[in-house]
Amino acid sequence: MPTTTSSAAKRQTLTVLLAFAAIYVLWGTTYLAIRVAVETIPPFFMAGARFLLAGGILLIALRLRGVKMPTRPQWRSAAVIGAFLLLGGNGLVTWSEQKIPSGTAALIVATVPLWMTAFDWLLYRRATPTKRMALGLLLGSLGIGLLVGPGLDTGPAAILWSDWAIILLAPVLWSIGSLHSRQANLPENAFLATALEMLAGGALLLLAGLLTGEAAQLDLSAISTRSLIATLYLIFFGSIVAFTAYIWLLKTVEAAKVATYTYVNPIIAVGLGWLLLNETVTPQMLLAVVVIITGVVFITRRQPKAPQPAPDLPKRTEAMPCESPSTP
User: Fold this and answer.
1) Residue 300 — pLDDT band, cuts 50, 70, 90?
2) Which terminal CB of the chain, N or C, has fewer other CB atoms within 10 Å?
């Protein structure tokens, strides 16, 4: 019996390590993959195809396992959340990476926990920021200023302020959608809810592509092999594998530990952009990396509580304010 228990513990530990590797490494590489994919594929069409295919594959797999189909109200809730997360969040990042370096995009997306903390307080009145959280918000704002400030050598003069505004809006919409998902009417099965959000978000992204004239820009014969490979990578590794690992981790370990992916993803994205795409990395940008990640650490790390006497009634465990249901 001890041997069996020990083997099960080792398998559990290995599975946890592999799941963390997925959200650390795979999600960190998605910014590079997006940058390559939009070289020859219109951004909204690419993102729409990515999430429609990923959501369809996930839904089919769940149906084969006997998971019940969602109700009509659950589809409506998934459409609202998909609009915020995938059209507003991922879609704007994908569009922006036509002009903004992938490493810079990853750093801006890394501010999601900062926005979620602010909106959780301002819109939902759930948690008043502590002094430590307020310092994290201040550092995050300072880091964004370093990224988009006029002294950045990566070329802000060549990037319109409207382009900066669009990518800065992405984590804002992602955060609002994440917070709204907590009270939305969604299936209890988290994987089914994810599949619905992907399908709804993918359809909205394709519609956005049609409304912005991407149909006229789409030339199937002009799609490069590397853009196609990057899109397939986003579908299977960025969406299905890493997403599944993320959902499983949220059920297995503390949310505060899962949130550490926000420290690692931008470092990987900046490094890969510099190594493979020759994206410029300046001292100012490196300083922004340190400042933003430090701010996120202040926000996401749970403050240890002083020991208290046992209460007469059991306490209810509250969810972490930075918990996010989705990914880049």
Assistant:
1) confident
2) N
Distance (Å) of CA 218 to CA 35, 137, 155, 248, 309 = 17, 41, 28, 37, 65
Does any domain span residue 119?
A: yes
Give the Cβ contact number of residue 270 at 10 Å.
24
Highest-pLDDT range among 85-89, 130-134, 314-318: 85-89
Per residue in 16-53, pLDDT (tens digit) is 999 999 999 999 999 999 999 999 999 999 999 999 99
Which single residue is written with the structure tokens 């940008």?
285
How many domains is the chain partitioned into structurally?
1
In a domain, 1, yes or no: no
Q: Is 174 helix (H, G, I), strand (E, B) or coil?
A: helix
Contacting residues for 14 by C-beta, under 8 A, at least 6 apart: none
Locus of tokens 């059209």: 87
| CA-based nearest residue to 303, from 172, 183, 135, 123 | 135
125: left (phi over 0), alpha (psi -120 to 50) or beta: left
C-alpha to C-alpha distances, 52 to 112, 186, 198, 236, 290, nearest whole angstrom = 24, 18, 6, 12, 35
* Contact yes or no for 241/22 (Cβ under 8 A): yes
Distance CA 231, CA 205 (A): 15
Is 11 a member of any domain?
Answer: no
Cβ(240)–Cβ(194) under 8 Å? no
Q: Are 34 and 102 in contact (CB under 8 A)?
A: yes
Q: Residue 17 is encoded by which pair of tokens? A: 């390590």
Selection from 275, 271, 234 nearest residue 90 by Cα? 234
Whether residue 327 is contained in a domain is answered as: no
- Per-residue pLDDT of 51-70, as tens digits, reads 999 999 999 999 999 999 99
- Cα–Cα distance list, 258 to 17, 23, 249 (Å): 11, 9, 7
Its pTM stands at 0.84
pLDDT confidence of residue 305: 53
